């Protein structure tokens, strides 16, 4: 998402034009430009294609990850553009998530299996790299 710098007077005016706390600054600017508010359907579509990109591999929201280590199965999910483990902890990389489980250095790309929402089967995460 792009960032636009504005001065304090513009910020105050935008704030004053917000009808409610639910009205975003983006909504105010859209109204001023005459392009209307983004529909809920459009927002849902954007959310549906949102996800996490790691080293050129795109994992859409809803992607499931799992691994069985020492007889125990661990899971994670891509949610709101982030890797979230079943423990609720956000991880930065597959290796970071793998190391949290094994307590040693592990190549997370070879450790985790992945199933994206459009996939019919699980595969090793590393198989998605080009």
Notes on the structure:
By secondary structure, the chain is of the alpha+beta class. The protein folds into two domains: 8-37; 51-128, no CATH class. The chain contains five helices and eight strands, in the order αααββββββααββ. The strands form two sheets. A six-stranded antiparallel sheet has the order 6-5-4-3-7-8. Strand 1 (51-54) and strand 2 form a beta hairpin. The chain is elongated, with a radius of gyration of 20 Å.
Keyword list:
130 residues; alpha+beta; 2 domains; six-stranded antiparallel beta sheet; two-stranded antiparallel ribbon; 8 strands; elongated
Write the layout of secondary structure elements.
Layout lengths: L7 H9 L8 H9 L6 H10 L1 E4 L2 E4 L3 E6 L2 E8 L2 E4 L4 E2 L2 H9 L5 H4 L1 E3 L7 E2 L6
Antiparallel strand pairs: 1-2, 3-4, 3-7, 4-5, 5-6, 7-8
Quick recap:
With 130 residues, the chain is α+β, with helices and mostly antiparallel strands.
Tell me the radius of gyration.
20 Å
Across the major sheet, the strand order is 6-5-4-3-7-8
Structural class of the helices, strands and pairings? alpha+beta
- CA distance, first residue to last residue: 26 Å
The low-confidence parts are none
Number of domains: 2
Mean pLDDT across every amino acid position: 88
Order of helices and strands: HHHEEEEEEHHEE
């Amino acid at each position: 998402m792009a960032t636009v710098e504005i001065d304090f007077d513009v910020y105050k005016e935008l704030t004053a034009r917000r009808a409610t706390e639910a009205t975003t600054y983006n909504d105010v600017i859209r109204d001023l430009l005459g392009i209307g508010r983004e529909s809920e359907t459009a927002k849902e579509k954007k959310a549906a294609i949102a996800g996490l990109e790691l080293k050129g591999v795109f994992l859409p929201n809803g992607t499931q990850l799992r691994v069985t280590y020492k007889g125990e199965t661990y899971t994670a999910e891509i949610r709101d553009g982030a890797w979230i483990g079943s423990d609720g902890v956000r991880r930065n990389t597959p290796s970071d998530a793998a190391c949290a489980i094994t307590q040693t250095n592990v190549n997370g790309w070879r450790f985790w299996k992945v199933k994206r929402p459009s996939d019919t089967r699980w595969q090793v995460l590393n198989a998605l790299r080009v």
